[in-house]
Design brief:
Structural class of chain B: mainly beta
Helix content of chain B: under 10%
Strand order of the largest sheet of chain B: 4-3-9-7-8
Number of domains of chain A: 2
Strand content of chain A: 15-25%
Largest sheet of chain B: 5 strands, mixed
Largest interface: A-B, 11 and 12 residues
CATH superfamily of chain B: 2Fe-2S iron-sulphur cluster binding domain, sarcosine oxidase, alpha subunit, N-terminal domain
Shape of chain A: globular
Bound molecules: flavin-adenine dinucleotide, FE2/S2 (inorganic) cluster
Order of helices and strands of chain A: EHEEHEHEHEEHEEEEHEEHHEEHEEEH
Largest sheet of chain A: 8 strands, mixed
CATH topology of the largest domain in chain A: FAD/NAD(P)-binding domain
CATH architecture of the largest domain in chain A: 3-Layer(bba) Sandwich
Radius of gyration of chain A: 21 Å
Helix content of chain A: 25-40%
CATH class of chain B: Alpha Beta
Distance between the termini of chain A: 38 Å
Oligomer: heterodimer
Radius of gyration of chain B: 14 Å
Number of helices of chain A: 10
Number of strands of chain A: 18
Strand content of chain B: 25-35%
Shape of chain B: globular
CATH superfamily of the largest domain in chain A: FAD/NAD(P)-binding domain
CATH topology of chain B: Ubiquitin-like (UB roll)
Chain lengths: 393, 111
């Protein structure tokens, strides 16, 4: 059997669906295929944050701010609730060294127009009465927001389908070649050949495997993240929470504190995030593991480390039950920036992937920018840093 | 107090702990130390332990083995405590839980 379309999108996570939707909106005939089920990839195993505060000034922060603006109105355009909420966020600061690093970081973000501040101990207590006394201050941004990734994916599918987009799960791309007329012929696992003018690879952490079908090597690799989900509980504090220690380690490796169980800590890549879902469950994250490959497993070590960490920061959490423990694969790149644009030397082949820990936040802007590239519209954003680039993995 | 005085399998009632007093929605209830909170509440004639989140329906003891979470109450300021598997301690403060409940004040002294 053979099918025809203008654009074949390979990978139906939040990024592929956003690309599919925005391309359909421009009048392209789009088909999205995904080897697994709805939400099987990282987009179904992650936190739900549109977090601006964690970003260094630069293209990533600018795009995240644009994406947040798009999310504010996206529910109207897609015609359904997306669980968008703006609870704000605080990054907890434990000592003077961290405070110095965060003060500098926050002032650089402010100069880019981000609405963020450092608050003192009293304001921290007032907004977060359950956080341990150990913390001396914190950042605060009212803009940090969240969405329900499943509702966003459903929204893109339904609105896309109204524009003629087709979405098929349990259909993997298996081989790819060009025919005499220069159109892609992609054989899928259902024995179908999809003929398309353009192909978009948005297979998340699996993008490099799909790239192999096109004889290209995309510098994207899986970085496993495990997180815990609690039962529904009454709100703990006014905002969502992170801790500065992980960010300080990234910004100033020389200040990284040496811990008792340092090697385990490094292997797990433990960071702290604490966010309330629309239903009242909390997501407690997360690990960033390099060595796990594609093993979609959770382990006791992470369960213990994540539980210990949250009880240390919010002692009250000792009394709360964990009801789920999940793992997902962040699509990571060596330089921490997504890859978006045409692949050099392969006409009609595009990559939109590598969002690592920000794919939910960046979904609308990614699809929008890709559709700008397709239509030749000039984007305001400086895209140079994102176009496919050779990097040593 | 209504307790099973002569159980067909467990035999005659032989309370293991001393009598202690706990507060249930502000009323004093006498319980045996170490028995499960739910047992003390049932013995005192209480059947409704909480009200559901969406439809505000009454719930009480269901599985009685800690699996279903139907019996949860606010105990010493902590919501979602399964009363069927949580032993009585002297002076415990127990409240009917409405929906997801609320955090109480105090030192959350439950272990
Ligand atoms: C613990 C954790 C916490 C996170 N927290 C956040 C957060 O708070 N905010 C945020 O913005 N981001 C967060 N992320 C990151 C976010 O989940 C990802 O960036 C995002 O989901 C990536 O979306 P995607 O569509 O690129 O990938 P995926 O959702 O993984 O989709 C890729 C799809 O490609 C399919 N596929 C693979 N191979 C093939 C093939 N051969 N043919 C067809 N289809 C194929 C897969 O089945 C999969 O469905 C988190 C991630 C983790 C793991
Ligand atoms: S009655 Fe089922 S958990 Fe207590």
């Amino acid at each position: 059997m053979k099918r025809y379309c203008d654009s074949l999108v390979i990978g139906g996570g939040i990024i592929g669906l956003s690309c599919g939707y925005y391309l359909s909106r421009e009048g392209f005939k789009v088909q999205v295929i995904d080897s697994m089920e709805f939400g099987s990839g990282s987009s179904g195993a992650c936190d739900d944050m549109i977090l601006l505060q964690s970003k260094k000034p630069g293209v990533v922060l600018e795009l995240a701010m644009e994406s947040l603006e798009m999310y504010r109105f996206l529910h109207m355009e897609l015609g359904c609730d997306l669980g968008f909420k703006q609870m704000g966020g605080m990054i907890l600061i434990e000592n003077q060294e961290e405070l110095a690093v965060m003060e500098e970081f926050v002032s650089s973000q402010r100069s880019c127009g981000l609405n963020v501040d450092i608050v003192d101990r009293e304001e921290l207590r007032r907004r977060q009465p359950h956080v341990s006394d150990r913390f001396i201050s914190s950042t605060y941004s009212p803009d940090d927001s969240q969405v329900d990734p499943f509702l966003v994916m459903k929204g893109f599918i339904n609105a896309g389908q109204r524009l003629g987009m087709e979405v098929r799960y349990r259909e993997a791309a298996v081989t790819a070649e060009k025919n005499g007329a220069g159109r892609w012929q992609v054989l899928t696992s259902t024995g179908c050949i999809v003929e398309a003018e353009n192909v978009v690879i948005s297979a998340g952490a699996w993008s490099n495997i799909v790239g192999g079908l096109f004889d290209i090597s995309i510098p994207i690799f899986p970085r496993r993240g495990q997180l815990l989900i609690t039962e529904k509980i009454p709100p703990i504090g006014e905002t969502n929470l992170w801790s500065a220690s992980y960010m300080v380690t990234k910004l100033r490796p020389d200040l990284a504190k040496v811990r008792e169980n340092q090697s385990e800590y490094n292997e797990l890549g433990l960071g702290f995030s604490f966010t309330r879902t629309a239903h009242g469950n909390y997501l407690i994250g997360s690990t960033r593991e390099e060595q796990a490959g594609f093993k979609k497993l959770v382990d006791y070590r992470a369960l213990e480390a994540l539980s210990r960490q949250v009880a240390h920061i919010i002692p009250l959490m000792r009394h709360v039950h964990i009801i789920r423990h999940i793992a997902g694969f962040r699509p990571a790149t060596p330089d921490g920036k997504m890859i978006l644009g045409p692949w050099p030397g392969k006409e009609g082949l595009y990559v939109a992937s590598g969002h690592e820990g920000d794919g939910i936040a960046m979904a609308p802007i990614t699809g929008k920018l890709l559709s700008d590239i397709f239509t030749g519209r000039k984007s305001i954003t400086n895209m140079k840093e994102l176009i496919p680039r050779c990097m040593v993995v | 107090m209504s307790r099973i005085a002569e159980h067909p399998i467990l035999g005659p009632l032989k309370p293991s702990g001393r009598e202690v007093s706990i507060l249930v929605d502000g009323e004093e209830v006498i319980a045996y130390e170490g028995e499960m909170i739910a047992a003390a509440l049932m013995a005192s004639g209480r059947r409704v332990f909480r009200y559901t989140e969406k439809r505000r329906e009454p719930r009480g003891l269901y599985c009685a083995i800690g699996r279903c979470t139907d019996c949860v109450m606010i105990v010493n300021g902590i919501p979602n405590v399964r009363t069927c598997v949580t032993p009585v301690e002297p002076g415990m403060i127990i409240e009917t839980q409405r929906g997801i409940g609320r955090w109480g004040g105090g030192d959350h002294g439950i272990h």
